Amino acid sequence: MIRAFFMDQNGSTAVEYAAIGCFLSILVYAGAQAIGRTLADKHFGGLLKAWATAAG
After folding, report:
1. Alpha carbon distance 56, 38 (integer Å)
2. Side-chain-facing half-sphere of 36: CA atoms under 13 Å
3. From 4, 10, 49, 56, which residue has the greatest number of CB atoms within 10 Å?
4. CA–CA distance, 44 with 13 (Å, rounded to integer)
C-alpha cells in the first residue's frame, strides 16, 4: 500500500502547477512593489506629500 502511494503519479501535475503558480505570484508581487515605488517617487510624490500634510 505504501509502495503504491509513492508510485502513484496522478497528483504530480497538480503539485507542479501549484509550484509554478506560487513562483509566478512572487514575481508579480515583486514587480508590483518595484513599479509602485517608482510611480510614487517620480509621478505622485507631490500629491502624496500634500495628502500626508493634509491628513495631519
Report:
1. 25
2. 6
3. 49
4. 44
Per-residue pLDDT tens for 1-56?
778 767 777 777 778 889 999 999 999 999 988 888 787 777 777 887 888 888 86
String of DSSP letters for the chain: -HHHHHH--TTHHHHHHHHHHHHHHHHHHHHHHHHHHHHHHHTSHHHHHHHHHHH-
Q: What is the pTM of this model?
A: 0.53
Residue 28 grid coordinates: 508579480
Q: What amino acid is encoded at 40 in this protein? A: A
Total residue count of the chain as it appears in this document: 56
